[in-house]
């Protein structure tokens, strides 16, 4: 795994290689996160927002919205600083799976593995294929999938 201290200040396509792995810092999910996400997404499903209803359900308490987990994963990856300056466009989210519930009090981190690198057909940008895993404090993968990213080439390079 590469730590932020080992990373270049500015990353470009040329700095990435298949097999690189990164691990983000952790972030604890709060009740405020669920309430805020429900408010701006309009997803007020009782499984997320109703303690009494959730107490009778499969998990015994409210669970985080699946897309809240995905959003947290992308935010944590952003904070790495590795992809921020070189990002051109998110290309897609493939095979995203919700493996386990995310609960209030869970502390999550994200791992990112570079699984593919290539230039665009025009040769004016790079494409990174990345496998992300959102992991809880018990080391359990709660969400995972592949997220492609178009990135800038090094100025004056290729």
Automatic annotation (TrEMBL):
Similarity comment: Belongs to the enoyl-CoA hydratase/isomerase family.
PANTHER family: BETA-METHYLMALYL-COA DEHYDRATASE, MONOAMINE OXIDASE-RELATED
Family matches, as InterPro entries: HotDog_dom_sf, MaoC-like_dom, MCH/BMMD
Pfam families recorded: MaoC_dehydratas (PF01575)
Domain MaoC-like: 18-121
Protein's name according to its UniProt entry: Acyl dehydratase
Organism field: Nocardioides massiliensis
Domain of life: Bacteria
Transmembrane feature ranges: none
SUPFAM superfamilies for this protein: Thioesterase/thiol ester dehydrase-isomerase
């Amino acid at each position: 795994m590469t730590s932020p201290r080992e990373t270049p200040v500015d990353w470009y396509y040329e700095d990435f290689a298949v097999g690189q792995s990164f691990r983000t810092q952790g972030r604890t999910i709060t009740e405020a996160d669920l309430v805020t996400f429900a408010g701006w997404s309009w997803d007020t499903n009782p499984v997320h927002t109703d303690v009494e209803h959730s107490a009778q359900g499969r998990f015994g308490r409210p669970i985080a919205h699946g897309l809240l987990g995905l959003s947290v994963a992308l935010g944590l990856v952003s904070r790495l600083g590795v992809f921020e300056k070189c990002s051109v466009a998110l290309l897609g989210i493939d095979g995203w799976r919700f493996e386990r519930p995310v609960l209030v009090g869970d502390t999550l981190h994200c791992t990112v593995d570079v699984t593919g690198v290539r230039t665009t057909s025009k040769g004016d940008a790079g494409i990174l294929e990345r496998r992300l895993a959102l992991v809880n404090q018990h080391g359990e993968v709660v969400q995972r999938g592949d997220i492609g990213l178009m990135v800038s080439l090094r100025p004056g390079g290729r």
